[in-house]
Amino acid sequence: MKNIVLFASGAGSNVQAILHYFKDKNAVNPVAIVCNNKEAGVLKIAEANNIPVELIDREHFKSDDFLAILKQYKPDLLVLAGFLWKIPEAVVQAFPDKIINIHPALLPKYGGKGMYGAKVHESVIANKEKESGITIHYVNENYDEGNVIVQAHCRVQEQDTADSLAQRIHGLEHFYFPRVIELLIG
Length: 186
Ligand code: GRF
Fold this sequence. Notes:
Elements: E1 2-7, H1 13-22, E2 28-35, H2 42-48, E3 53-55, H3 58-61, H4 64-72, E4 77-80, H5 89-94, E5 99-103, H6 118-126, E6 131-138, E7 148-155, H7 162-185
Parallel strand pairs: 1-2, 1-4, 2-3, 4-5
Antiparallel strand pairs: 5-6, 6-7
Bound molecules: 5-O-phosphono-beta-D-ribofuranosylamine (GRF).
C-alpha cells in the first residue's frame, strides 16, 4: 500500500475518480485531503470516504507546522487535484519528485498564475485553438512549470463553450489521472 495525500479545493471530481479507481485495488491508501476552502465539494467526498481533512489557511500552509503534519502522513505521492495555491518551497524540497499536478490544458500554453478553471477554456476558445487537453506534471517552485509526465489531447469543436470543453477535459482527467498515479507508485 502506498500513501497518497490529495490536495483539492474545488468540486473534487478528480479526487472522486481517483478514489473510485483504487477502491478495490489495495494499492493506494488516501491518507489525507488538504483543502483551503471550507465550502469545497471535496469535503463531502472526504467525509463519505472517511478520509481525514487538513483544512488550511495561507499562514498555516507556509508554516513548519504544516510541513511536519504532512511528513507524519508518510506520503509516497502528493497529488494536486484542483488545488490553486503555489506549493511552498520547503514542501517541494521535502518531497522531491513526489508532487504531481493536473492542469486542464496543454502546457506550456494556458498555464501560469491565474490560469485556472473556466479562464483556461475561455482562452483556448478565444484563440480558436483546434485542440486542447490535459497535462499531468511534477510540481516545482513555479506554477505549472515542472517536468511533464503525460499529456492527452482532445479536439476543440467550433460550437464549444467553456462548459462543454471543460466537460470533455474532465473526461480525460478522470481517465488518465488515476492511471498515471498507479504507474508512478507502482
Ligand atoms: C481540474 O480541471 C484540474 O485540471 C484543475 O482543477 C480542476 C479540478 O476539478 N487543476 P475537480 O475539482 O477535480 O472537479
